[in-house]
Amino acid sequence: MSYQLIENALGKMVPSHINGQEVVPYQGVGKYHPSGQKAAPAISSCANYPSSGDKTVANLKTALLKAGLRNGMTISTHHHFRDGDLLANQIFDIAAEEGVKDLVWFPSASFPCHSKMIRHLESGVIHHIEGSMNGPLGEFVTAGKMKGMAVLRSHGGRYQAIQDGEVHVDISVIAAPTADPFGNANGLRGPSACGLLGFALADSQYADKVIVVSDNLVPFPCHPWQIQGNYVDYVVSVEQVGDPSKIVSGTTQITKSPDRLLIAELATRFAIEAGIVQDGFSFQAGAGGTSLAFAIFLEKFMEENQIRARFVRGGSTQYLVKMLEKGLTDYILDGQTFDLEGVRSMREHPCHVDTSPFTSYNYHGKGNFASLIDVVILGATEVDLNFNANVVTHSDGKLLHGLGGWQNCLFSKCTILPIPSFRDRLPVIRDQVTTVCGPGELIDVIITERGIAINPLREDLIAKTKGSNLPIRPLEDIKEEVDKLCGKPDLPVLDEEVVAAIKWVDGTVIDAVRKLK
Amino acid sequence: MSYQLIENALGKMVPSHINGQEVVPYQGVGKYHPSGQKAAPAISSCANYPSSGDKTVANLKTALLKAGLRNGMTISTHHHFRDGDLLANQIFDIAAEEGVKDLVWFPSASFPCHSKMIRHLESGVIHHIEGSMNGPLGEFVTAGKMKGMAVLRSHGGRYQAIQDGEVHVDISVIAAPTADPFGNANGLRGPSACGLLGFALADSQYADKVIVVSDNLVPFPCHPWQIQGNYVDYVVSVEQVGDPSKIVSGTTQITKSPDRLLIAELATRFAIEAGIVQDGFSFQAGAGGTSLAFAIFLEKFMEENQIRARFVRGGSTQYLVKMLEKGLTDYILDGQTFDLEGVRSMREHPCHVDTSPFTSYNYHGKGNFASLIDVVILGATEVDLNFNANVVTHSDGKLLHGLGGWQNCLFSKCTILPIPSFRDRLPVIRDQVTTVCGPGELIDVIITERGIAINPLREDLIAKTKGSNLPIRPLEDIKEEVDKLCGKPDLPVLDEEVVAAIKWVDGTVIDAVRKLK
Predict the structure, then answer these.
(1) At what angle do helices A289-304 and A318-325 cross, to 10 degrees?
(2) Mean pLDDT of chain B
(3) Does residue A164 belong to the interface with chain B, where contact is any CB pair within 8 Å?
(4) Are the Cβ atoms of B220 and A333 closer than 8 angstroms?
């Protein structure tokens, strides 16, 4: 093995090196103090760019070759089209055609549409992937089939890694619904409008070469310039850059499960009873069915009680858009549009604002937006009695999900995990979670259909909800009840070999995913 | 002397060192190829910033002390309030109170209101100024009274110098008409609304410590965040941050001089005859009286001929705003609002867009906006027969003006200098300009009340205007005629000592200003 296993502050054994690079084990929340300087890109000169501003080249292959595509490079893409991405596969098909090997693919997230990458992983075109593992790629990794070690980072952690020089991007390819020949680009207009392009921001700022690909080239200036042409090397015009219908995933529908509706209702009642839902408050609820139900219940309460939020954080959906249009919030601060209503609203409403992992999530900035949010609703695959939570692996040991903004959102003033107490007869509250993605000290409340458990560290929340008629119980009690129902689950049989490292928001390694035997 | 004089590509003798730092002499347009990396600011951590996002401190003095104000630091300010700036003087008054010495003041421009700095220059609180010299400060410098050497840079050159690490800013103080406690800030709203804050962008991105000062603190989020709170260390609330009535200077009135009106008319006719004024074209005209007259004449022609510009570049004024509102241009791309109508329009009109020296002028980017502009109208204090031009000194040797965006704008597709052939009986066309600020190869047309001279390098423009009834003449002819009228002027008596260095857009030294004997 090219690494040793060392114990981090959570007692987890993590690799000392990732793909040959020495790493720092997790040291606790806010305990690791970075030293050194940010990454410093090479200085460019306008003398080397067309004075007309026209950076268009014939096609993606030409752009990649001009950008110097060669063995061992790190190529980044972003996931604003989610499962409708059309570019990433093309890039590595071109690399394969050109006989290029040992690339690192550094997407902001991967989706089932990227299962085609498996053949490039097998053939050696791609050495390893640093990014979320969704579905088939996750299974491939968990089976120990990828040459290098996978690295999973939160959205903020990805910005941090690029900014801090942990990941050097050689070529960034940005799918842009609208662009001009100078490279200014946004996601607001055009046949493939997907909303915003914030996940590509760090790449545009720090990559050696930046390629913008669009199916809607407009004359300069393309405004707003969510991506600034001053960072862009080449512009490519294509027939179709992405399939925006697929930014809507199954997770953007409100749950119909009675249990989950109950959980969402409990979460809403908790936020209200704890005194969080007041004029000028803020919340973030993702696109999962339970989160959406929470937002709907909250909306009803806000309307009835004439409460107006200062801002809500997206992933935006039609539900948040409706709140903005009804005047229930001053702003949507949006990191990712999850449906086409979100796209429309961002284009039309001046208070539906696009944000980026830099503004919202980068832990190595002078603050970020995530810690300013009053209450956030997040999911989890597992939790343990110390309130540690897992979001990337299932209890069978398989790596199947990415971190998204999950770790970053834990820094909100009140983090609630509304989760079922068991799934497929497997208890969700475990003795130990398969993979720790977030430390318990940041997780304030766990809400199941069997009751609400408040983290003992949050004496303020315990005091505020004392005397309410909420079903507040110790987490141990809920676990015991579920364990009786489900029985003690079998644990997966894992190899010692690490197939994926889980980074914390500060670049340290919080846990590792093992090969499944 | 702490430097030698070396000859640059224009044959000018320039200092080898500026304030102890070795510099590169000007090598020709696009001839200097920068190597190396951009400046790399220290990595921050959210762990060191309040999780509430509230970065407010009691007052400016507290903020400066927390930022570590000490001897020898470089302190930057910006000039969006122009002669209505209220902060810069306060900063150095505080420094004087605290007994701090040898500071470098690095403003984006100075104005007559800053003449109070002279006492800090005399007492040693400020060692030298790097920035434009306007009026009294310029006279002080030209007289050789400043301890260090002044450095003048264009707006783009200032961004380049910070980005490339030539100038390291220790503390940046940003006057913000609106801000939130996190440090997000803009110039659009509040009692001191001044439009935009682009000149402070580089400082916010690269300075060690960033202080935002505002008289209009709003709850998070202050949007748009022209300055991003993620770069900001401290926020200070004050009674009044600037006097926006003084952003309107005397130069934002249309000229009433018949000669200058004629010159402006000739410039307009030239642009039309040369085929530049077509649907989708672009132009930039500054806030000088002649430039404004040019814009008015152009507007009339565009209306009569149903021509619509794609964009016009500001400094915005009521005249440009009117063009936008009439539909004569798709966009105003604005670098600096020159009157309150400009401020209002930028706040209200989605196509009145704020830009920054990064997007528009930075020569060490992957292109910039300046070279995309079809025609630009600029001023000059002097020109010579090689079309070299001066914009910072008068013929008496006094340094009285800054470079502004002048050098950057020379990269437009057609640069026109509409200037009177003499001022105060001194000819404007000289054997040699007192200070070369822009090389003749970038200056295409000189238009005086006595005729139009086209740079012989621009055969295309010569061909296009051949056969027109424009008074096109060789520059030599015009000079001869004026010299006969005015007589040969006395030249100023200059010392060898360099009091100010003039940087080119790429950081090389294009000329030097001598001490006046």
Answers:
(1) 10
(2) 96
(3) yes
(4) no
